[in-house]
User: Fold this.
Amino acid sequence: MADSSTKQNELNEMSPEDAFALLGDETRIAIIRALGMTPDDSLSFSTLRKRASVADSGQFNYHLGKLVNNFIRQTDADEYELTYAGMRVIGAIFSGTFNQRGTPRSFELDAMCSVCGSSLVAEYEHERVTIVCQACDDQISTFGFPPGAFENRTHEELPHAFDGQIRAHLSAVRKCFCLNCTGRMHGSIIPNSEYLLEDQEVGIEHVCERCDNRSITSIGVYLLSQPEVVAFHYDHGINLNTTPFWELPWLREENATVLSSDPWRVQLALKLDDDYLRLEVEDDLSASVI
Ligand SMILES: [Zn+2]
Ligand SMILES: [Zn+2]
Assistant:
């Protein structure tokens, strides 16, 4: 059994160098793009060739053959469809992750700084968005954002896209899942770092065991999907599913109290109107209302 499964792995795996080399040809990318136009459909040889605009049948057959079993699957009905890897290539092309460098830009968000009342600004450089209050000189959030995500989105739609990107990231981090490499992440409470606001004594860091990808959030941001936190906001007329976290004043004023540092025990007091919700976060990042 062990022998046959090892053989199977050898058949199914190729080196990253070989896999990326397979993509270095315009006809092959045209074929993948053509299938990506209707990713749920399989296409016959002739339809696919026509859609990919490859006049020479022999040349088309040669390049298609190189992609089959890796980026394209041949169905029982002798048609062609994208594999998961093929879909990831389409995603990488549209998001511009590998082939576009984002133009630096800066624009005001339709949201005010809860400390000074100035408009918050989104700055984009090196494929990262940083949300800042320039008047307070506070960095509220910074995260990777592929250049292709700006395409076909208006200024008004961009904050929703930023919020969506952050939520996807936070949701994965809470499950210790690395969105970069799918590896396991390990989370812990850490003392203040450059990614936290100056007066935040502690924050939460997740590190991927495999690719060393790091994510640092404040205690409050980490707890945004905690059921008691969602319910507390709902009771005060705030829907946390639709409100970007940079619009929440209490997050800017957050200063979690350290009850113990070995093991870590941290208390967060969250104030809305005149009501408080107090949570205690343990060393293993579990949280409960106190
Ligand atoms: Zn400000
Ligand atoms: Zn990773």
DSSP finds ten helices and 13 strands in the chain. Residues 1-8 have pLDDT under 50 and may be disordered.
